Amino acid sequence: MSTADVLGWTGALTGGFMTAIQYLRARRVGIEGISPLTWSLFLMMGIFWLAYGIQQRSACMVAGTVLVAPVQAAILSAIGWKHIWRSVLGSLGIVVFSILLPTALWGWNAGAGAIGVVMVVTRFPQLIDLIRLPSVEGVSVMSWLLSSVNLGMWLYYYVDKGDSGAALSMVVTIVMNLLITAMAARRHHHTQEVLARWRARLSAR
Questions:
Q1: Nearest Cα residue to 41 out of 151, 101, 102, 115
Q2: Any residues with CB less than 8 A from the CB of 185 and at least 6 apart, and which?
Q3: Which terminus of the chain is less hemmed in, N or C, by CB atoms within 10 Å?
Q4: Which residues, in sequence order, are CB contacts of 40 under 8 Å at separation 6+?
């Protein structure tokens, strides 16, 4: 088994665990700041990744999608289905017309390129909520950070397999994930308290 295959399987087997960290924080702390549209899009994009993995005959791609989907659904369930059903239906429409339709018309490379764009767009609702909502304590910094690490494994996998479309989507998505990580960390009360203590110490000197 090559290094790329090892990383692919590692990414597949750990993706659900990293996403579960967000679910556990939502149950323990609350759902404040978690974007239902972002997580609905994550869940619906799994339709493409599952089909793409089957087409590529990549067992780790299929396994990664199957393992993470129930956790994504659990996060949406924690938010409450009566609050997110519009986001779920809207996400399904976005995936069908923005990803699956280009794939059917122009092939898998077009679909891989399209999902790269959509993967960036999925992060914008979360970024907007991090800016506008008064509390974002429900957003797990650790989950988004570990997700970036997980995507880094997939980036290596796609580069090794010569899949430039999927690799490019990973690069841009990692940047967006790290931005969300930084913004969420900055907004959390614990981080603000730590920064306040450091400022107090510096001003006392």
A1: 115
A2: 141, 191
A3: C
A4: 76, 84, 87, 88, 90, 91
